[in-house]
Request: fold
Amino acid sequence: MALLIVSAGATFYLYQRREIPLPPGIAGTLVFVSDRGGTDTLYARRLPSGPDRRLTWFTEAVRDPALSPDRKRLAFSVGGRIGVVTLATDDVRLLTFGVDWRDSMPAWRGDGQALVVASRKPGEIANDVHLLSPLDTRGGTIRAPITLTRGLDETEPVLSPDGTFVVFVREDNLFRQELANGRPRRLTGGFKKTRAPRFRPDGRLLCLWAENKQFGIDVLDADGKNRETLSVGTTYYRNLTPSPDGRYFAATFAFDLRFHPIDALRPRHVEAIHLLDARGNFLAPLVQAFGDSNHSPEWAR
Reply:
């Protein structure tokens, strides 16, 4: 029995350490969250094979990284606060302080001078979407509510590339709200539970969805039309980000409902970052480690 356990452990170790070559031309900086030090922390890695560099040193979990349009700054959430780290210098500045509002899930405006965030009052569970601006001054950040919907939880906001509307998740569907008139309209419906909207470099919307025991990646126009399924299967990706050139995705692998014998040895609740092609097909692992969760990638040039 002991020999069997040792053999199984060695097999799993080799499985984890196996190298699958990345496609030619993979480049840029991958930013991600890892708990390898015991707490979720931001790291950066130059692709294809550079060393990992730690970006933040909080004792609290750092989550929700979001790259600025110029790919030089990274917004994040930590303990209900929003911070920004400059990638070239690792300088960190807090924009909000988690007192009157608990903020999370930041996303940038196209000019890099504002963020949308999911915000709730302490003790409440439902979020609204707020706009934080300006970000280029030490004089203080102004907060403006975009949605005011008591009892409805609105999360994962993203601003359109031109900054004229915001897309967010409400009750497992995507909604779009124009900033000029404040009227939301639903972009998705049906039985698919939709989440994690992102804009592709071409301006179309990506989203992840779940229906029964099937999971997929869809793309649709910014007005909700021409929805197309890129991939569908039993693999659950928690979130994903497109590469700067739109040819690939970096995605957080959470689990696969298909049983593989090696899964019996895998630590539970450990996430990894996978490289997918533009149709959502697995190509190679980007960041994975035995016992450590690596997730929430962002991809800079």
The two ends are 50 Å apart (CA to CA). The longest strand covers residues 248-256. The first helix runs from residue 2 to 17. Residues 114 and 133 are 5 Å apart (CA to CA).
